[in-house]
Design goal:
Number of domains of chain B: 2
Radius of gyration of chain A: 20 Å
Order of helices and strands of chain B: EHEHEHEHEEHEHEHEHEEHEEHEEHE
Radius of gyration of chain B: 21 Å
Structural class of chain B: alpha/beta
Oligomer: heterodimer
CATH class of the largest domain in chain B: Alpha Beta
Helix content of chain B: 25-40%
Order of helices and strands of chain A: HHHHHHHHHHHHH
Number of helices of chain B: 11
CATH superfamily of the largest domain in chain B: Response regulator
Largest sheet of chain A: none
Number of strands of chain B: 16
Distance between the termini of chain A: 60 Å
Strand order of the largest sheet of chain B: 1-3-2-4-5-6-12
Largest interface: A-B, 41 and 38 residues
Structural class of chain A: mainly alpha
CATH architecture of the largest domain in chain B: 3-Layer(aba) Sandwich
Chain lengths: 307, 357
Amino acid sequence: MTAAILVSIFMTLAAAATPILLAALGELVTEKAGVLNLGVEGMMLCGAVAGFAVTYSTGSVPLGLLAATLAGVAAAMIFALLTLGLGSNQVATGLALTIFGIGASSLIGAGFVGRTITRLGPLFPADYAAHPWLRLVFGHDAIVYLSLALVLAVSLFLRRTKAGLILRAVGENADSAHAIGYRVLAIRTAATAFGGALAGLGGAYFSLALTPMWADRLTAGRGWIALALVVFAAWKPGRLLAGAYLFGAVATFELQAKAAGWSFIAPEVLAMTPYLATIVVLTMMSLGGRTGGRDAPACLGKPFPAS
Amino acid sequence: MSTIITRRTLLAGAAASSALPLVGAQAQAPFGVGFIYVGPVGDHGWSWTHDQGRKALEKEYGNKIKTSFIENVAEGPDAVRAIRQLAQAGDQLIFTTSFGFMNPTIQVAKQFPKIRFEHATGYQRAENVATYNARFYEGRAVIGTLAGHMSKSGQAGYIASFPIPEVVMGINAFHLAAKKVNPNFKTKVIWASTWYDPAKEADAAKALIDQGCDVISQHTDSPAALQAAEQRGVFAFGQASDMKAFAPKAQLSAIVDDWSGYYIKRVKEAMDGSWKSGDVWGGIKDGMVKLAPYNDAVTPAARAAADELQKGIVAGTIHPFTGELKDQKGTLRLKAGETATDEMLSKMDWYVDGVQA
């Protein structure tokens, strides 16, 4: 394998990791506030279709990204209204949100099938972005850098700010947070909205950057991987980053190994590798005893006020 | 007229129609034609082409027929419910458009002997169940010829879904045609293990390009691989429909499925009572398989060779699978001058030499 191939592999894996990282980071914040929103896939699809529709209609990628973010928030607000406002079951409502997102995006996107837009290109000028090895750092599009900045921002927010502490308090012990005067439902709604915004953005990464088009179920299940990644990362943003890039690396390795003709590994085994890796890491984490289920916010998925 | 039945309304619909036992007895009712799709009609691939066929039916027959479809039907037991739903809703001719609907179609057909069924790509038939398929391998041979001429590295990438005969014969037809042009030609196959996952299809294309392939062919459903080829500046081929809009420079041509002619003919036969069960394999000659216009980049020599092959296939003088033909293990599959039978094609599970699968 030459250096050029390795550089190319890294570019592919960064692009594969980015939408999952964004969606998972949003879900991490949502879950830290004690809300389990299983509708990530649905919110991603809403963002993907809204981003594509607006970019196609206006020709502006920034407007498309804004629309995708808002669409994700809108979908998350349906979830917030039902679970936080009306006290419906979070698991069932989240699953319903995914099914709703698949249907709604298909309906909205029907007129956009077969259309195409200009792909979101690298952020930096071609001197850097197309350089044989400088492109490792400078060859990515704006969303890749944004996702990395967001990991840092969320990490600092959760650990170093008072607002982050309050958000975690709401997720760990909603009754106590309420007793000392914090507005649990408002904070949870805001965290859910943030999760929706990033899921929408992650979805738009598919329709604007990875595969610039609209087709039904464009995200093909990445929302579920994002959900698993949050558990995998034990609700820690830094680990989430590592996990997303690890997943991207394993998925890219699978394809490279097939293309290179490594026939001593059966293709079915290669197809399993991303999921096998997930199981192995989860197992190792729970064997270690420090992480696993114990890192989950204590009030995750529990309604407030308790009924 | 058309009705869209989603999987969500399916159960409610089933309950309602069992309460109305005389659905089919209305006088002068339009002739009902139903479709079962494995994917979303918005996939711009396989299911989309069948839905184009359905729309052609509506255009041809207007109010004389009423079409309906159910999309995203999982292959297996779920399909039984979906097919039965259309049968109970009064459809008199039902097209089930994926290989995995074979047993469900046969099962439902037994319960509704007066309704006619058409199953795409299968091999089980009955008095009221016909099968139909397209000779996609003819199109594969044409694009293989183009690939052989246009590839500088002598390596093509092939993104495949699952190793079923339909896919295997496509890979072999493509490779044999390319090898005729360039005896050292290599075809590298990536099994995506999915029919539809745009991001994965694009990444597979990138991996193949990284490994030196400069022509990409695919047997998965989305245009994502073409977009990746366009981005990297290599050539590719559209699948199921003309995907030029997604890759104006990269797409050399596309294999286009056109079911409308067959659907119009069979609906007419069903309406006038001359419909009979049978097995139809339509190819380039029948207009069921078409090639999208060649890209301007296609050299005159490549163009001439591809046109000549098409003419030969239409005239019946050229068969893409003609002996002497050996598989990778050296087993003789076709003797010199012998051509493959349909039976042999429909069971193909071996690769010709030079395919890396």
